[in-house]
Design brief:
Layout lengths: L1 H26 L9 H9 L5 H16 L4 H41 L4 H20 L2 H6 L3 H11 L4 E7 L8 H8 L20 E6 L2 E7 L6 E7 L2 E7 L8 E5 L2 E2 L6 E8 L4 E9 L6 E3 L1 H17 L4 H7 L4 E6 L4 H12 L5 E7 L18 E4 L9 E6 L5 H8 L4 E4 H13 L2 H10 L4 E6 L10 H9 L3 H9 L15 H7 L5 E3 L5 E3 L9 E2 L2 E2 L10 E7 L1 H4 L9 H12 L5 E7 L5 H6 L11 E4 L9 E3 L14 E3 L3 E2 L1 H17 L12 H18 L1
Parallel strand pairs: 11-12, 11-14, 12-13, 14-15, 16-23, 16-24, 21-22, 21-23
Antiparallel strand pairs: 1-2, 1-8, 2-3, 4-5, 5-6, 6-7, 8-9, 9-10, 17-18, 19-20, 25-26
């Protein structure tokens, strides 16, 4: 126990010294841009601190060099920077060596412990010490992608920095008790837990802590925006939180510069008030269970990777504009996205079919200084307030999460506004999700109606006993099937369906698949008591001997009818409704579902479907911008009276779910007259721009 107390004192003493040294040297960076090159050289000699402060100092010197009054002064400053970097590397090596020696000493102390219990305690102390050393540096903070660990790191740093939290859109249905407790541990008082605290998803929230002191904490009563504006320690702060219906925005402005990632969920900025530097800016999406982490740098890298992939597939942003008949383009961007803006502007300059006449920026509302504008010589560089737009112009907003105020500024001019994030989603769906194959098929067979549908999602709240069991036990197809082989049923998803163990094993047995001579992904013929396959497809019960038109349903294992007998698949339920309600139409339902096929296999199904005029294709390739759509995403959100419908959270349903899904499909087809005889085909040129809004309006009306 004596060794344990020594280790505690050693750890505390070490952390105090590290933090004191960091604070001491941070003060020297306060007015760095005002120092001369001689003073910077003197400052370099005194730099002996940990990695984060050295990195901050180096960044400050780079900024100072860019602001140099002459080229000679800039060269001198860059020389100082290079020398400082060498010192940084030496210091880092020394710190690493000291930490290794400390760990070795502690391990020797552990080896000499008088008992196993004391050895265990000492190992725990070593682990805590290493964690504390890591947490004392913002380098680990900026690399952290897990929300829980991020909050723990913030707790260890909250007495040193200004921490600002602003919610965009919603506090989140997955903001659980432990996350809310981690936020309160920083010093805040409001309970943001959706389970016990907040009863309304779209609250807005602002929380600000300055070195352990709560400066501001506001939570809206319902969904009205929250604002905070103030100046202290010669730094101005402006923070905005807006819910989905009120603009869906998060703003964290420090000295006029907005550092918010501006994504859904918790937007967090960590600011060093001494060095006047933003240490980290991050957003965690608390409306999804994965707590997706986003940072500006990562967003830009991801966008660049996607744009490169699109270009390799033969599709670019200029081609998107040409296809949509956009002629006069104005590019709007901000300094953080200048690299990707340059690549897109270059692609425009290489395409003679489209005109780009201006570039504007708003951070701040001034011209962005350009180091190299060789690829932009044909553009006019203007401020956002100087752009004179007409209804013939299209503004391309190169920003992953543009502020609503910027969009309104352009929309009020009467011009069309397109955003890069929407284009990226569209291009991804067009190229990789099969939209291109649907469009090509529709052009080839214009008299065949294509309708998109979307599967229901697992409930976000108010789980039934079976759904809670699925989540807690992490049930999956493999776990349930393995238990069935041992004579055990570990799920209540089949309690009201009354299958025997033998019958369930047959329903969980995936039919063999193969590729026929034409390259189509098909099932091998199979006969069973409950599940049968013929001519490469799952058997649909109730098909009439004679029919006038066909409905082909393309989709994954749910369409193929995994976990259900022939008469309880989606296609069989749908066929039964057609036979009962609209038998005079002579409709036959064909099951084109597949198991475990890739996306390309699903796309190929279009090539092997033999259609005739006025046939219908139902597909789960989601393209509401082009084709009529049936959105059943919220069908299984509680409360409902379908009973237990889920096998696992991966969109697998039982017979109850198939029946409910088929009923919803039939109702939507009937209400919208999708199978009326001689229904005119959709005009693709109009759908390109307008159909998404029409579909959205029709869904709201329904």
């Amino acid at each position: 126990m004596f060794l344990k107390e020594v280790l505690k004192k050693l750890r505390n003493k070490l952390l105090v010294k590290v933090l004191e040294k960091q604070d001491e040297l941070s003060i020297k960076t306060e007015d760095l841009t005002k120092l001369t090159s001689v003073q910077l050289s003197e400052l370099r000699q005194s730099v002996k601190t940990s990695a984060d402060i050295q990195t901050e100092l180096w960044a400050s010197l780079e900024r100072a060099s860019t602001k140099a009054a002459s080229k000679q002064e800039a060269v001198e400053l860059k020389t100082v920077i290079n020398a400082l970097q060498a010192d940084v590397e030496k210091t880092l090596s020394a710190v690493a060596r000291v930490q290794m020696e400390l760990q070795a000493s502690l391990e020797k102390a552990t080896a000499s412990a008088v008992s196993k219990q004391e050895a265990t305690e000492l190992k725990a102390e070593i682990k805590m010490l290493r964690a504390d050393v890591e947490q004392s540096t913002p380098v680990s903070l900026k690399a952290e992608k897990g929300l829980r660990n991020y909050l723990r790191l913030l707790k260890s740093l909250c007495r040193r920095y200004v921490i600002i939290i602003a919610v965009r859109d919603t506090t989140g249905a997955f903001l659980t008790d432990d996350i809310a407790t981690g936020i309160k541990a920083l010093g805040f008082t409001v309970d943001l837990s959706f389970e016990k605290g907040l009863k309304w998803q779209h609250h807005t929230y602002i929380g600000i802590i300055d070195r352990g002191e709560v400066i501001c904490e506001t939570l809206s009563k319902q969904k009205e925006p929250s604002y905070y504006t103030a100046t202290w320690d010669r730094v101005s702060y402006e923070v905005v939180s807006k819910s989905y219906s009120e603009g869906s925005t998060a703003v964290i402005k420090i000295d006029g510069v907005d550092y918010a990632t501006n994504r859904r969920g918790l937007n967090i900025a960590v600011f060093d008030p001494i060095a006047k530097l933003v240490i980290d800016s991050v957003c965690f999406d608390t409306h999804v269970a994965a707590f997706v982490c986003s940072r500006i740098e990562e967003i830009v890298d991801n966008l660049q990777e996607r744009m490169t992939a699109f270009a390799l597939c033969g599709y670019t942003v200029p081609q998107y504009c040409i296809d949509n008949k956009f002629t006069n383009i104005v590019v709007y961007s901000e300094e953080a996205y200048w690299n990707i803006t340059g690549n897109i502007c270059l692609s425009f300059s290489l395409n003679r079919k489209i005109n780009v006449w201006a570039y504007c920026a708003v951070r701040p509302f001034q011209r962005t200084p350009l180091d190299d504008n060789r690829v932009f010589q044909s553009l006019n560089f203007v401020n956002i307030d100087e752009v004179q737009l007409t209804s013939d112009d299209t503004v391309l907003v190169i920003h992953p999460s543009p502020h609503r105020e910027v969009l309104i500024r352009f929309e009020d001019s009467g011009s069309r506004v397109i955003t890069l994030d929407k284009i990226v989603v569209w291009m991804h769906n067009y190229i990789f999700r099969g939209v291109r194959s649907l469009i090509n098929y529709s052009k080839k067979c214009p008299d065949v109606r294509i309708i998109c549908y979307r599967f229901p999602s697992f409930p976000m709240k108010d789980w039934s006993a079976g759904e809670r069991e699925i989540k807690e036990k992490e049930l999956s197809y493999g776990k349930i099937r393995s238990a069935l082989k041992n004579g055990q049923l570990i799920t209540r998803s089949f309690d009201d369906l009354h299958y025997t163990n033998e019958e369930l094993l047959e329903l969980f047995d995936i039919c063999d698949r193969t590729y026929n001579l034409d390259g189509e992904y098909v099932f091998k013929d199979k006969q069973g008591r409950l599940a049968n396959y013929a001519n490469g497809r799952r058997v649909t019960i109730g098909q009439p001997d004679r029919h006038k038109r066909s409905i082909f349903i393309i989709g994954p294992c749910n369409i193929a009818g995994l976990f259900a007998p022939d008469d309880k698949t989606i296609c069989s339920y749908l066929q039964r409704r057609f036979n009962e309600d609209v038998a005079e139409l002579g409709i036959i339902v064909e099951n084109c579902g597949i198991y475990l096929g890739n996306l390309n296999d699903k796309h190929k199904k279009l090539s092997y479907i033999f259609t005739k005029p006025n046939d219908i294709i139902l597909t789960d390739i989601w393209a509401p911008e082009y084709f009529p759509s049936i959105d059943l995403k919220d069908l299984f959100q509680r409360p409902h009276n379908y009973g237990e419908v889920w096998i696992d959270p991966s969109h697998h349903y039982n017979a109850n779910g198939y029946r409910a899904f088929a009923e919803a499909l039939f109702k939507s087809l009937q209400e919208h007259n999708f199978y009326e005889d001689k229904l005119p085909p959709p005009p693709l040129d109009q759908y390109l721009l307008l159909q998404h809004h029409r579909c959205s309006a029709s869904r709201k009306t329904a």
